[in-house]
Amino acid sequence: MIRILFISSVSACFELDNESAYYSDSVYSVSLDGRELFRSDKNVFSLFDLTPDTQYELTVSGYETVNFRTEAETCAVSVKDFGAAGDGVTDDTQSIQTAVNCLPAGGRLYFPEGVYYTAPVNLKSHIIIELSEKAVLLGHTDPGRYPLIPGELTDIVTGESVQFGTWEGNAVPMHQSLLFAEYAEDIRLVGRGTVDGNAGNSTWWIDVKEQKVPRPRLIFFNRCKDITVHGITAQNAASWQLHPYFSENTDFLDLSVNAPKDSPNTDALDPEACDNVNIIGCRFSVGDDCIAIKSGKIELAKKYKHSASRHTIRNCVMRFGHGAITLGSEMAGGVKELTVERCLFEHTDRGIRIKTRRGRGKFAVIDGVVFENVKMDGVLTPIVMNMWYNCCDPDRYSEYNTTREKLPVDDRTPYLGKFTFRNMECINCHVAACYCDGLPEMPIDEITLENINFTYDPEAEPGYPSMKNNNVQLCRAGMYFENIRKLTIKNVRVDGCEGDELMIRSVSELIKE
């Protein structure tokens, strides 16, 4: 079966329904109206440069034929008709913003081949932005061209707070992102072009801890809905590349997201306190986490009680990040109903990375998480669940966050619920196969590992399996579990570990088959 993921007026995205991870079992051909367009070996593919409001017949060798119709649009105009030069030197900000401002609902703004040097651009509802294959939106290198966005303001009539800016789970001022939308809906960013933050040629990656206002993201959606980003390449952001925030119904399809391995905090895609997020057919290679699902720190959680919920990640490949898929650590609003399947993780520090700690709060509930049909190669530690995360916050070295003694459960205590990992192949591990460390006062409730194989790199090097205080380096370690209520291990092989295959401490119920 071929699944239709998305259709716009000029593009479409499709997914082959099989059991393989990211790559299909064989090369297939794609034909449109009887004419072969290309061959591919990936489970997700896209069509571009389609004609609006037109019926098409799609044929994929070995699969059924699919008929689809592109959407209608009210108009299509070129950004160059508004004065954009696209020469990589001229500042095109005003031309681009004017074009967006003038575009009617249902209209499409087209970027032909060229390099469009620009400061931040505000998007609006009910528009399509199309970047042609050789079109590049190139970020301005002057930090002064990125306006300051306030974190939170007070409504002058009602006295209620209105939030605009954010950084790492707090409502704080920030620099405006290169592409920016707040309180908008029905925005589509499509095409084979590139959005490049150009941070390597600016000062954004220099002395990042000394910068008083958080760096801009590349693309930021705050309290938006019905957003689709399809086909583009996003790269070289000042900080996070793609950041939907308190948004709903957001799709990220067949994207490439890139940044140098040593670039600071350049997460690829961080949906924060969002509902119904689909990340399908994407390729990530960045300097921090590839995907980090978040829901704010404790003050945001207390105010909004908004979890990250109903996320699907499928047929993606993650390379060279700190974590392939991370939950937290800013997850005080909770993470619920996450499904990850048919993905490929290559040479990331950790594969599945769940991080929280005391102080995230009683709404910091992660539950209903399923990973299946995942392949990992060269991942240092494939599965990490860490309730002792010690990065970033001022209290990271406090007695409250370092003591291994059992403390009272209170409004600051987080909770990790049910987690299922099945049908996984993890080869060339380095540090450990699995490292899960709960709190003594709040053990991880239930972990199930089923049909998983772990093997080790012959040249494995020692490292830290998780980021926590009083850490110890490991190398070719087996599966470590501490402070778990129920642990189920079925048909799990650990070949070539040094020491015990299974290390457990304070596990109340163990089922091993």
Description:
This protein has 513 residues and is mainly β. Among the domains are: 2-69, Immunoglobulin-like, CATH 2.60.40.10; 289-309 and 323-513, no CATH class. It is built from 3 helices and 44 strands. The strands form 6 sheets. It has a 29-stranded parallel beta sheet that branches. Strands 4-3-6-7 form a 4-stranded antiparallel beta sheet, with no helix packed on it. The chain is globular, with a radius of gyration of 23 Å. The protein starts with a strand and ends with a strand.
Can you lay out the helices and strands and say which pair or pack?
Elements: E1 2-7, E2 12-16, E3 23-32, E4 35-42, E5 44-47, E6 55-60, E7 66-69, E8 75-78, E9 87-91, H1 93-102, E10 107-111, E11 114-118, E12 121-122, E13 127-131, E14 135-139, E15 148-149, E16 152-154, E17 161-163, E18 174-175, E19 179-182, E20 185-191, E21 194-196, E22 219-222, E23 225-230, E24 233-235, E25 242-245, E26 248-253, E27 256-258, E28 275-280, E29 283-285, E30 291-293, H2 298-304, E31 308-314, E32 317-319, E33 323-327, E34 335-341, E35 344-346, E36 350-355, E37 365-377, E38 381-386, H3 399-402, E39 415-416, E40 418-429, E41 432-437, E42 444-456, E43 477-495, E44 502-512
Parallel strand pairs: 8-10, 9-11, 10-13, 11-14, 12-19, 13-20, 14-21, 19-22, 20-23, 21-24, 22-25, 23-26, 24-27, 26-28, 27-29, 28-31, 29-32, 30-33, 31-34, 32-35, 33-36, 34-37, 35-37, 36-38, 37-39, 37-40, 38-41, 40-42, 41-43, 42-43, 43-44
Antiparallel strand pairs: 1-2, 2-5, 3-4, 3-6, 6-7, 15-18, 16-17
